[in-house]
Design a protein that fits this description.
The chain has 32 helices and 9 strands. It is α/β, with parallel strands linked by helices and 723 residues long. Helix 28 (625-633) links the parallel strand 6 (615-621) and strand 7. The two termini are 60 Å apart.
Length: 723
């Protein structure tokens, strides 16, 4: 298997793993608590500055009240992060259950959070209330919070789907929310009682404090493992694995620090005091200094890798924000913000980087290049400085620099891989949204097509809808027009130009026009968007007036909802006259698939515009019932042959259809335009049938205003030279 196939296989595997419900729930839960983490990180840093003099200055400026406020803020953020994550996971799982199984009883996210919260208190909280804060904090409680939240919410969802755990609906009143809660109440009670029984069993077997019992159990393998390279790799890898699953590795393995690493540092310090060789390579200072630069996982190196290679602008901004706390070895903003927890794309480097750095620093120490660590260093001391302070040698900073470079190089390809996984998943969600937007059943005035969709597609639609409103308000040039010429092959001249909307989103890139239009309709912004498109198109046509033929038509797409606006005709005429254009220079295009009902008000509006000279085209024209109904009902001047007929004109039946469209149009004195002409073969076939006007990539792709003007001039000039 070559490297490209291997990369593709790895990409598919990571994409599959990333989409697993449990992984998605946990990563989104971590995102939800990110505001707490950001505030807590900067507050923690403010209270633990690496330089004593700076800390004294800050404490003096804050005063006693300010110091207490900072400590309270840390407790209110880091101190309840595990509790907040448990609630977030409970709500997220309840919501996902309702979306993935619509036939099951609806589960309120709030009820899901409350059930998980109760189970968490029942099974995790120690008997002594003074120790509760440790169980709820991010440092010690995160792992158990995730385990209990995922387990209890899964049990609750499964019980809620069993009829035996349903109360009769007549027990509740008419409020549907109350009915949903009451119906699954036995499932909620049953879940809480089940976890109460689990706690009872744990207490009987001596594990009343589950937090402490877990910590002691995880520390057992290290207590008699010596202090060689094997110990260092085992401890470092175990710490990273715990972090990968959401637990603060060094804190969970605190017993290793207390019983092995800290005493080793004290022995080294005593040996240095008496001028003898320190016996221990691995100390707490060793790991803090050489393998936790930026925090566990050496996330300082990851920050630079993201800034150097990541294509996601939001991720880069997050890395810049996380760079300040990472400089002082606080890595939570990046771990929760990327997030690294349960992120398969970063699993390998997150484990590999500290292991490689451990080997490098260990080798440098036993080869006497790097002095043994013995001097206590504040854990917030920035890299390069901490290396010198911990060893008393510039070589400490050199090894740190080497380790940062190695970490950067190891993370770099996985940043690109993470981009690929995220972009692939994003394309899938965007494609699903596009398919919904292209459906034609949502022309009802009060019916939303996209923003009420369930799941990721609906969330993406809602996000884009809000961004579209901002794009219309802030005039940041995210929305703009391009222009595609319509060329008469017989005369060799450009007879018209279609204005096409484009949206260059700052995060998601190019948004397909059907999505933009559907979102504008859902948000009741279609009149504003339509006015923007018409005004920009007319401005461009007016700017060309002195350089193009007078009869060059600018075509603008409109939707049925725009025609329901009683002021639509006035808006069109005001725009034309405001730009000093004649009505005959504008063509309004209605998509055949949009199912516009030919009511009397719409007919009067279009007839009024047509009488004044505005042209009316039917886009995507076929031989369906809607197409023929439009020809009978509306004052149509142009039909544009559906590109599906252009792309697949390979049978006698399809050729007869396009011949019939041409014959029908000629009999009604209607102009025809063939869309989607991309090669000479298509042009030859349609020319032989009798068509003359074409639009497609064979002639020109959509162009910016200036480029389109150049094309019109050059195309018309060639026709003049031929004559």
């Amino acid at each position: 298997m070559n490297s490209r196939n291997l990369a593709q296989s790895l990409l598919c595997l990571l994409d599959d793993l990333s989409g697993r419900p449990a992984f998605l729930s946990i990563r989104r839960g971590l995102f939800i608590v990110l505001p707490l983490i950001l505030v807590g990180s900067f507050t923690l840093l403010l209270r633990n500055l690496p330089f004593p003099e700076a800390q004294k200055v800050v404490d003096t400026l804050l005063g006693p009240a300010g110091v207490r406020a900072c400590d309270n803020l840390t407790s209110a953020t880091f101190g309840i992060a595990a509790l907040a994550l448990a609630c977030a996971l409970g709500g997220a799982n309840a919501m996902r259950a309702s979306l993935t199984c619509p036939s099951a009883p609806a589960i309120s996210p709030m009820l899901g959070s409350l059930v998980v919260l109760s189970c968490f208190f029942v099974i995790v909280a120690p008997e002594e209330t003074g120790s509760w804060t440790m169980s709820f904090s991010m440092d010690r409680g995160l792992l158990l919070a995730m385990i209990v939240a995922m387990a209890s919410s899964s049990v609750f969802v499964r019980l809620a789907r069993l009829r035996v755990f349903h109360l009769p609906e007549e027990v509740a009143g008419h409020d549907p929310v109350v009915r949903d809660v009451v119906k699954v109440m036995p499932a909620a009670v049953g879940t809480i009682l089940l976890f109460t029984c689990i706690r009872f069993v744990l207490t009987i077997y001596g594990a009343a404090d589950l937090q402490q019992a877990t910590s002691n159990l995880l520390a057992l393998p290290f207590l008699h493992s010596g202090n060689g390279l094997g110990f260092g790799l085992l401890y470092g890898t175990a710490s990273q694995i715990l972090w990968f699953f959401g637990a603060h590795g060094p804190n969970v393995l605190n017993a290793v620090d207390v019983n092995i690493l800290t005493p080793a540092g004290l022995v080294n310090a005593k040996a240095a005091m008496y001028g003898t060789t320190p016996p221990f390579v691995f100390t707490k200072v060793f790991f803090d200094t050489f393998t936790r630069m930026g925090g566990s996982g050496s996330t300082f190196a990851l920050c630079f890798a993201i800034l150097a290679r990541c294509r996601d602008r939001g991720m880069k901004k997050l890395s810049l924000l996380a760079l300040v706390p990472a400089l002082c070895n606080v890595n939570e903003p990046l771990i929760f913000g990327v997030p690294l927890v349960l992120n398969p794309a970063f699993a390998i480097p997150f484990l590999l980087v500290p292991a490689v750095q451990t080997v490098v620093a260990y080798t440098a120490t036993v080869m006497d290049f790097l002095p043994y660590t013995s001097i206590g260093v504040a854990w917030t001391t920035p890299p390069l400085i901490s290396g010198y302070v911990a060893t008393g040698s510039i070589n400490g900073s050199v090894i740190q620099l080497i380790n940062l470079a190695l970490g950067f190089l190891i993370y770099l390809p996985f940043v690109a891989l993470s981009d690929a996984v995220r972009e692939k998943h994003g394309r899938q969600v965007m494609q699903a949204l596009l398919e919904v937007a292209c459906r034609c059943e949502s022309s009802a005035p009060d019916k939303c097509k996209c923003i009420t969709l369930p799941g990721e597609v609906g969330r993406l639609a809602h996000t884009l809808a809000n961004d579209l409103e901002r794009a219309l308000n802030e005039k940041e040039n995210q929305l703009y027009l391009v222009f595609q010429p319509q060329c008469n092959h017989a005369t060799g001249r450009v007879v018209g130009v279609e204005a096409l909307l484009r949206w260059d989103h700052p995060v998601y890139g190019a948004i397909a026009p059907p999505i933009t239009v559907a979102l504008a309709e859902d948000m009741n912004l279609i009149d504003r968007l339509g006015k923007f498109i018409l005004l920009e198109a007319c401005k461009q046509r007016a700017a060309w007036s002195a350089a193009v033929p007078h009869d060059l038509v600018i075509a603008v797409n409109i939707t049925p909802r725009q025609l329901r606006n009683a002021n639509f005709a006035k808006m069109v005429l005001d725009t034309l006259y405001g730009q000093k254009l004649k009505p005959t220079q504008l063509e309004l295009e209605i998509t055949e698939s949009s199912i516009l009902e030919p009511d009397s008000r719409t007919l009067d509006l279009l007839t009024r515009l047509r009488v004044l000279g505005v042209r009316l085209a039917i886009d995507d024209f076929g031989m369906g019932h809607t197409s023929l109904r439009y020809l009978r009902a509306f004052p149509v001047t142009t039909v544009k042959v559906d590109r599906s007929l252009t792309e697949s004109l390979n049978s006698n039946v399809q050729e007869q259809i396009v011949r019939s469209i041409l014959d029908l149009s000629r009999s009604l004195h209607i102009t025809t335009v063939v869309e989607g002409v991309e090669d000479e073969q298509q042009l030859r076939v349609f020319t032989r049938i009798g068509y003359q006007t074409f639009q497609g990539y064979y002639f020109s792709r959509p162009l910016a205003g200036g480029d389109c003007l150049d094309f019109v001039r050059n195309f018309n000039a060639r026709a003049g030279q031929d004559k």
